[in-house]
Amino acid sequence: MTHRPLRTLTLPEPAADQYDRWLGEIEAQLADPACDRNRLCRDVLLQIYYPGLDDYDAVLGDPATPLATRAALLALDPRNITLEPEHYHEIDPARYERVKPLLWLWQSFDRSPLGGGNVTVAVRFRRILARHVFKRCGDNFKCFQFVEFSFGYNMEVGDDVVVHRHVLLDDRAPIILSDRVSISDYANVYTHSHALTDPENVDSRPTVLGPGVRVTYHGTVLSGVTVGEQGMVGAMAVATKDIPPFQVGLGVPAVPKILKPNAPATVREEFERRRERGRG
Fold first, then answer.
1. Averaged over 116-133, what is the pLDDT?
2. Per-residue model confidence as pLDDT tens digits over 26-55
């Protein structure tokens, strides 16, 4: 295989300067303990979706404003909408109240021309929000578009973590993404499951991805599973049980079938012993 590191790109200086100033404003506001996060969310979305519209309240209260426009303006303010996780029984209302405006801002930004696939700016924007949403967010967090969380505040994210497009991180219980974890497009990581006979009977358990773990395309990690250091969940695989370090889980349910070539000798010996026992 060919070593192909990502290219480094730069934006035109006038655009880069404008982006820097805008992101700096948001970062400064969030750093202020007195920041009204609902108002911040509303104002940022107003500027993105309705540029040039300055007086939100006046337009909203104007009888000449069409009802659909008023409804759209109301939805910019997170106090006027509900999100699915608010219906979950195990929610901590006080903690969610703090993060809900930023989660709504995150989702709505991703659906805008400014967000979406605009990688250079959007990754920085999400990184700023993540530091104020997650329980912990390490350095160089890189998140692409249309990633969704349940509560957000149960996320513990290490350094150099990458989350690609259309990923669901269901942190109804803690999710731990250790250093250098990479999650590919359309993957799912869960922390809850339902009883077979009663879907309202819910079991929630922490899910842990160890250092250097990869969850590849459309892979799923179920509640309570730990994927060990440098472990991997293969494409379309469903990890229902723990995946040992340096091993690749394949299939449904995922079974550790491949040992990565960089596995330490002790791990390799244990893998060979288990394989021989399986043959016997």
1. 96
2. 999 999 999 999 999 999 999 999 999 989
In terms of DSSP H, where are the helices of 50-149? 56-61, 67-74, 93-110, 119-133
What is the DSSP code string of 177-224? E-TT-EE-TT-EE-SEEE-SS-TT-EEE--EEE-TT-EE-TT-EE-TT
Q: Tell me which amino acid residue 135 is.
A: K
pLDDT tens digits for 239-267?
Answer: 999 999 999 999 999 999 999 999 999 99
Pair of tokens at residue 194: 């339902």
Compute, in degrees rounded to 10, the torsion defined by CA atoms 94, 97, 98, 99: 120
Taking a C-beta distance cutoff of 8 angstroms, is the pair 37, 102 a contact?
Answer: yes
Amino acid found at 198? D
Q: Which domains does the chain have, with CATH numbers?
A: 137-279 (2.160.10.10)
DSSP string across 131-192: HHHSSEE-TT-EE-TT-EESSSTTEEE-TT-EE-TT-EE-TTS-EEE-TT-EE-TT-EE-SE
pTM above 0.90, yes or no: yes
